């Protein structure tokens, strides 16, 4: 059976005709995620219960994890207690906790009622860790070996207890008091002598994290040290869980998605886009638009107080959008580079001055190129008639000079707006970060507002005071 | 020795005093990346050569990979041929290729001259794969076993050839003709009988990729199927390399950084922010600002043709920034959600209508909330004197109605701009993606321009035609 041929119709037919052998074969040949995807679309969820009765729990535990949240919920409702026990005992605790987090209270208690005491304690403990900490993503199924064992004894033990562990590629070594000593990679067993003591081959410099370490920091540590798994220690430095690389891959994806959302002024979604309703979606986006609108009051104030100028010289209004857009875009460029650099740990507030100096020089160069180009563009627009500016009684050289004045005014303002926006683009994310807040969410609105207001003030200052246009 | 105590000064001192034992101890106790970080700052690179003479090549190969590109380059210059051979024979081919890609031609040929023939062939082959394909990130050091072996024979073989492989956790099984048959996870050996044939325990449904598969697609496959390693097949379906999860972690980070850069209108940097010079940085950002400025010609055209209206009713200028900003921000929100959803494979062009319908309803809701709020805000601004609007000879109820008209005009325009921008925010990325182009880079400029122009046209249409304000 090929993955390409798996469809909801096929699955429904196999179930309806009670094709036990074919269903089992399906799970052996096709990855569970591919089956789950078509199973999510099944018309009667009750049919799926038959799959859980038929297929080995090794497969169904993974299959269940891959199903969508609402199908999982309906299934837990439908399962008898013994079916639930079968499923849960084959599942990893961190996976159980993952789907329990989205379930209503009655189903949570249904699950807690049927699991054994140790699992219940583990689940409750994991559910209690703050979201986005190492504790909340760790699992409690790992191989922990006493440092006194020999390599041969250790391999025997791994054979016995390894089936239930989330990874057997990293073994965690503790002393008699369960204090963490170090890790052993499985390949070291392959290359070691059977009678060697495992304490000798354990890597005692192994990196660890605490239960309250932020998951983004855990991800940075995995990347920096090329880890496959890491030990999570509690406040007493005892081994209390582990995190494996596949969970880190999810964390990285989630964190990148969140940062992108925040930069685009969307409060990060708890679920996927598909699973987020229309009303919720509107509530995740509207507050930011409203907040920015409130901050735009300052720009309106500036414009309002220069209404006379705008009335007598309407050409000034024509260039306001280009001024606002370019200032905002240029600041946005710098913010994005800063936020990403901070997120991946390339730099931080301590590098502030060095980066500000660099970005200041970048801004001078960008500002120069953009404003020289803009100067030519605006004069061109006026002569091509795209923008109409021909004051009465002025022609020839006098008109040319007049048009140069206007283009020069806009270009100089652009130059200053770019320099300001890029310097703020460094400064504000760094300050926000130094205050231990998230730079992605707060930076853009502030910078847009400050750049808009200062660009307008400069615009009117140059036009009235220096060029005396009005 | 603790990681915290490692400093450039310490390293320099150890080298100056030829403290061979202490240097070796340092590499046993501290991760190479932490040593590399302080080694990058060393004042005389020649001192580092001593480290490579002293420390086991297992460590130095990793250490070399962790050094910065310019330090690597200087070292390759300084190494004798035999030192270079030592280093390279302990390094993985994909790591060698990684640093060779940034080196000048004379150093590339220095390296190619000293490596053995097989490595030279591998390097040349890997260097020839197109950037960002599976071929360009794969490694050629993996464990490939003949399907005819027994479990016991396989373990013996792994012991012998495993030391040089990038991973021993996934074993790749091929038939006599080197056609790929399937994979075996190392833990299956631990749980299998010694005389079993390995063909029986191989996972024949194992997912593979081709040498030309895009690295972003490879990353999606790793995430979807929770893989640790994947086989890369050439055009003849022969096994030609493998990719491991640690390389995928780098790909994910790189792709997320690139998408964020593009959304913020920065051409993705080839190097890190730190390693990119001021001039290069300016060249990565300026073209986008200029491009958007050229596209803003259309907004200028619209404003220019309504200069009479703006002259006689300057209050209209006051609200132009709020209109532009809100339209741009609201479209930006939708684009970010689309681009990320497409990037992580949550949806694609085939889901276009469903998502457009959803986002249309979101837009109605967001537009309604924002414009109702805006209506109140603008009236408030006028009565608080933040925005000055009091036409001559109008007071009391007439003034109130007049102010309601202006606020209403801006609010209705805002509503329409939000709906247009969100619908375009779905449509444009989907079209760009359907054309097999990268939606992140092209979407924002188009949407900003279309939204700006249409918002301004609507603004002036309503004010002149419907409200007959001028």
Quick gist of this model?
Chain A is mainly alpha-helical and 470 residues long. Helices cover 66% and strands 6% of the residues of chain A. Chain A is elongated and about 100 Å long.
Low-confidence parts of chain A: none
Quaternary structure: homodimer
Report the span from N to C terminus of chain A.
80 Å
Name the average pLDDT of chain A.
90
Specify the overall morphology of chain A: elongated
Q: Tell me the β content of chain A.
A: 5-15%
Please give the share of residues in helix of chain A.
Answer: 55-70%
Most extensive interface, chain pair and sizes: A-B, 114 and 113 residues
Walkthrough of the structure:
The structure is a homodimer of 470-residue chains. Chain A has 470 residues and is mainly α. The first copy, chain A, has 24 helices and six strands. The first copy, chain A, has helices at 8-16, 20-29, 32-39, 46-54, 57-66, 69-78, 81-89, 93-100, 105-114, 117-128, 134-137, 151-161, 186-190, 198-201, 215-225, 245-263, 278-295, 297-305, 307-312, 315-318, 320-343, 352-384, 396-434, 439-466, and strands at 144-146, 170-174, 180-185, 208-210, 229-233, 239-244. A three-stranded mixed beta sheet of chain A has the order 1-2-3. In chain A, strand 2 (170-174) and strand 3 (180-185) form a beta hairpin. The longest helix of chain A has 39 residues, at 396-434. The model of chain A has no long low-confidence stretch (mean pLDDT 90). At the A-B interface, helix 12, helix 13, helix 15, helix 16 and helix 17 of A face helix 12, helix 13, helix 15, helix 16 and helix 17 of B.
């Amino acid at each position: 059976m090929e993955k390409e041929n798996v469809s909801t119709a096929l699955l429904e037919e196999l179930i309806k005709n009670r094709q036990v052998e074919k269903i089992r074969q399906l799970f052996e040949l096709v990855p569970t995620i591919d089956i789950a995807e078509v199973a999510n679309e099944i018309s009667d969820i009750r049919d799926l219960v038959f799959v859980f009765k038929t297929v080995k729990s090794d497969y169904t535990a993974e299959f269940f994890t891959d199903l969508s949240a609402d199908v999982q919920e309906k299934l837990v409702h439908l399962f008898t207690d013994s079916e639930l026990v079968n499923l849960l005992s084959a599942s990893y605790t961190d996976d159980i906790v993952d789907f329990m987090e989205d379930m209503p209270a009655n189903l949570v208690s249904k699950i807690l009622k049927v699991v054994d005491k140790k699992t219940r304690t583990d689940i409750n403990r994991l559910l209690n860790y703050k979201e986005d900490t190492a504790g909340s993503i760790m699992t409690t199924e790992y191989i922990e070996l006493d440092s006194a064992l020999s390599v041969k004894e250790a391999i025997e033990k791994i054979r016995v207890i390894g089936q239930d562990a989330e990874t057997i590629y990293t073994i965690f070594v503790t002393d008699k008091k369960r204090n963490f000593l170090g890790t052993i990679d499985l390949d070291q067993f392959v290359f070691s002598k059977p009678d060697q003591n495992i304490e000798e081959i354990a890597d005692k410099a192994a990196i660890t994290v605490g239960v309250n370490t932020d998951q983004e920091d855990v991800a940075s540590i995995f990347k920096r040290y090329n880890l496959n798994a890491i030990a999570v220690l509690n406040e007493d430095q005892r081994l209390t869980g582990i995190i494996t690389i596949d969970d880190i891959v999810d964390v990285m994806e989630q964190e990148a998605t969140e940062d992108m959302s925040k930069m685009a002024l969307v409060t990060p979604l708890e679920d996927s886009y598909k699973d987020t309703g229309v009303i919720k979606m509107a509530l995740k986006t509207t507050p930011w638009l409203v907040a920015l609108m409130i901050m735009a009051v300052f720009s309106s104030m500036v414009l309002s107080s220069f209404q006379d100028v705008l009335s007598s010289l309407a050409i000034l209004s024509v260039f306001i959008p280009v001024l606002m857009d370019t200032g905002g875009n240029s600041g946005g460029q710098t913010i994005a580079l800063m936020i990403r650099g901070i997120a991946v740990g390339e730099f931080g507030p301590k590098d502030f001055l060095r980066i500000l100096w660099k970005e200041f020089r970048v801004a001078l160069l960008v500002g120069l190129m953009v404003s020289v180009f803009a100067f030519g563009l605006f004069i061109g627009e006026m002569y091509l008639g795209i923008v109409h500016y021909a004051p009465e009684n002025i022609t020839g050289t006098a008109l040319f000079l007049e048009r140069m004045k206007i283009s020069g005014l806009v270009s100089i303002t652009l130059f200053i707006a770019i320099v300001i926006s890029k310097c703020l683009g460094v400064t504000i994310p760094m300050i926000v970060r130094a205050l231990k807040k998230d730079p992605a969410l707060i930076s853009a609105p502030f910078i847009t507002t400050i750049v808009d207001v200062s660009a307008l003030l400069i615009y009117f200052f140059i036009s009235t005071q220096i060029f005396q246009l009005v």
